[in-house]
Amino acid sequence: MSASIGILLKRLRRHASEASARLQYVHFLLFSILIGFAAAIGAYIFRWLIFFFQDILWAQGAGFPDRISASPVWAVLLIPTAGGIIAGVIIHLWGPEARGPGVPEVIKAIAVRGGRIRHRVTFVKAAVTSLLIGCGASVGREGPIIQIGASLASSLARLLKITPEMLPVCVASGAAAGISATFNAPLTGTLFAIEIILLDTEMSYISHIIVASVTASALSKIFWGDFPTFQISKFPFSNFNELIIFFLLGVVAGLLAICFMVMIRSSENIFSRINLPIWLKPGLGGLLLGCLALKIPGAMGVGYDVVNTGLNGSMLLDMALILLLAKLFATSLCIGSGMSGGIFAPSLVLGATLGVSISSSLNMLFPGLALTQGQYALVGMGTMVAGTTLAPITAVLTVFELTYSYKVILPMMVGCITSAMIVRLFYGYSIYEGKLLRMGVNIIRGHEDNILVNVSVVEGMETEFDLLHETDSLEHAADMAVNSTFPHFPVVDKNDRLTGIITLRDLRGYLKNQQEIPGNEIVDTLMSRTLVTVNRNTSLKEALSIFEKTGVSFMPVLDSDGKVSGILKPFEAFRMYRDKRRKNHILSTSR
Predict the structure, then answer these.
(1) How far apart are CA 556 and CA 503, in angstroms?
(2) How many Å separate Cα 527 from the centre of its chain?
(3) Which pairing describes strands 447-448 and 488-492: parallel, antiparallel, or unpaired?
(4) Among residues 44, 84, 526, 589, which one has the fewest Cβ atoms lying within 10 Å of its Cβ?
(5) C-beta separation of 505 from 489 below 8 A
(6) Rounded to the nearest 5°, which phi and psi values hold at 392?
(7) For the whole model, what pTM was predicted?
(8) CATH number, domain with residue 158
(9) For the chain, give me the number of helices (H) and strands (E)?
């Protein structure tokens, strides 16, 4: 009777636990809707601020380059300079995290702080980046919107007491919602969050990211209507011989992406050597940008007017080359001087002008090809994004959602994958990974391995283990293997120094043929002398690298005298990583 009651209670507890898990899942899906709503509102306010600053600072015109051309010389020089100084002061005093593209900062927040982003980042990022773009800075609005969405999600999650384990998923959902609201492209937002932001996630969490992304996309239709970001005509691709040209476009785009990233890094190095206060350097970048814009107005701003000109086939070859070079220098100046803004839009501009340049050049050399300029501008956009972000699938899906044409997929895949391969082969990092490395953050499979650097293997090793001496008999070793809970045994000499390893696999032959093996055989004759060990002062990062390279299932930890202090296993090493990361959640405090 009592046994039946016990079984019944266990079943009830299991059902209650399952019901609680299902309820929690539903609650988090509802919270994902809230994240999507908040991110869309943040994107709407951010874009409104950009147009507000542009309207009050510049003359009227059909497009932003026309407004720059219609403004007096003093305005072209002083407005970006003043905007850079004001933004530099705000960033320096209240939000250093707002400096830069935005996406690397979100990745760092997830990897290092478990998704904790200071509440003020939302307001600082929105204010300074909208001011800078409004003043004509050559940066994108997508990266900032991603950071704004992620910051809002982080703040809401902590205000509503979401568990720390789910905080990275919330931040990734906010980032996805941000880019979804920007392009009205929910699939792009979802894949961007998975492929770039949240590199290490479970499949069960993807639904939360999708819900947030779709919610933001639906609200963006309400705010801005159901019209495309870019003026894209149909993509009538039918000549498969052109795939060779798209492959060539991917190669050139990959090389251009490397050049773009090197120029940004060089610009950062140059500005870091200039003996000026850090808050004044964005002003210097704005002044230099203004000087460039006096000759080439299209170098200023987000650059979507330039992209649309390339897509509708009305851009001349010489103008495409000039704008390509101008955008390279303009964006490098802005990012290198410490302004706040993204690189997604500049990458699209570079890709569009590159596609126009290649298609126009080939048409001049081989008139019979009759290449469509807009098609190559479109594929060029995707190849540059793939090269700079090393996320070719996201780039392909982005362009597909902008065109809704299946015919664009094959050329895009050829160009984007080629571009990403060129960058990975000759440069090694995406623009986000490079930025993180310069910030002192090294990402491995979505984890921040700097957490492991200061963790010694001593903290993760087992101190209880069984030893064998090299003079012990095999019979004694077999008895120990049968009665011990450990499958492997360090073997030491008379001075207790490690000389070998013996495992159950080594003893298997003896156990099978125990009657045929002489009783005087000792461990020394059977043990393995090929040792993989670590010292007590070895970092957990280095130990995990050794596990990965050698494939061993355990490593003896030795002290300075060569004596065994403990045993390290991969499972324990990863457990220590999780513990340290959890402690980082607790110790990190929002300000």
Answers:
(1) 13
(2) 46
(3) unpaired
(4) 589
(5) no
(6) -65, -35
(7) 0.73
(8) 1.10.3080.10
(9) 23, 8
